[in-house]
Amino acid sequence: MFSAPANRKNFFATLTGGETARFLSVVKCPMAALLCLLSLLCIQLPVLAKAAENRPVYVYAAASMQVVLTEVLALAGDELSLEIVPVYGGSAGLARQIAQGAPAALFLSANNGWVQYLSDTYPERISEQQPLLRNSLAFVASPCKRDWHGHAAVLPEPEPASAQGLHEAIVAALQTGEKIAIGMPDSVPAGSYTRQSLQALGLWDAVMRQAVYAENVTVALNWVARCDVAFGFVYESDVLAGQKLGVRHVSGIPGELHQPIIYPMAYINGPRNEDARRLGAFLKSTQAREIFLSHGFALAN
Predict the structure, then answer these.
(1) Which of 59, 87, 79, 64 is nearest to 267 (CA)?
(2) pLDDT of residue 114
(3) Which CATH architecture has domain 56-134+260-299?
(4) CA triplet 134, 137, 139: central angle to 5 degrees?
(5) CB atoms within 10 A of CB 46
(6) How many whole angstroms separate alpha carbon 236 and alpha carbon 253?
(7) What are the pLDDT digits (tens) for 217-253?
(8) Helix (H) or strand (E) run with residue 194 in it
(9) Is CATH 3.40.190.10 correct for 137-257?
């Protein structure tokens, strides 16, 4: 409701004769005010719809995909003539943003749990979901050359992933007393898979005493690369980037120790849904597949 200033005399003194007449007609006739408002909306709605069509295609993607998607989305933008804006972060945080109305057109999560959360809790937001990629876990060590609290920290040389080799490597790391980076297991998919693996090995309680928890797996990798921590659990796809920074690949983690690591792709209802589907089709193309494979990902069946 409109209310005139308390000093009405001064208020009307500022209006011209025509403005005074229009003001009085609106105040005296609420229906006229409503019709004016509706006419303005009729003018603005097509403009707003056009603006929505012209805005970029926002892709909300797990942080562990940032390196590979930078390359893939640049190619997709050229091929499809689309302006694509990626938003990276932890899958949990991205899912919550989408639930609250963030302008995502496509959601690439590091596990199915957060896509299912949206589908179950906010079904109007998800139009369809499909599996896109697979990944695996790795145990890595800092590049720093130092004597960790008097321990030599002699780690086994990298070898094909085996439960026994991984167990030996983690025990050797624990003996140093140094910190171990892990994604937050209740919200970060990599952290959840790591917890499952360590529980299967009977080492979760021991590792928890030396663990520091990261908001996403990329943060965990950076801690290891900067020598903020001595060890960490990351994705195999992160290892290629980490090795350029001197991070040591200590051991792979056998897939039978945890649930399958699947990256689903979810289309979000909205004005860019059609373009999101074009982009999703490109992400499954031969061109994109070769890039994903070169960065350590595998294709989901």
Answers:
(1) 59
(2) 94
(3) 3-Layer(aba) Sandwich (3.40)
(4) 165
(5) 9
(6) 9
(7) 999 999 999 999 999 999 999 998 899 899 999 999 9
(8) helix 189-201
(9) yes
Question: Which one-letter DSSP state was computed for residue 151?
Answer: B
The encoded tokens of residue 190 equal 């990599």
Distances (CA, A) of 92 to 74, 133, 191, 227: 25, 18, 12, 27
Q: Which H or E run contains 298?
A: strand 298-299
CA distance 11 to 32: 22
* Residue spans of beta strands (DSSP E) within 23-146: 57-62, 84-89, 104-108, 126-135, 137-141
Give 143's DSSP letter. -
CB 299 within 8 Å of CB 289 = yes
CB-CB contact of 214 with 188 (8 Å): yes
**Dist CA 139 CA 34 (whole Å):** 65
Residues of the chain with CATH 3.40.190.10: 56-134+260-299, 137-257
Number of H helices and number of E strands within the chain? Answer: 13, 11
pLDDT digits (tens, 9 = 90+) for 103-150: 999 999 999 999 999 999 999 999 999 999 999 999 999 998 555 444
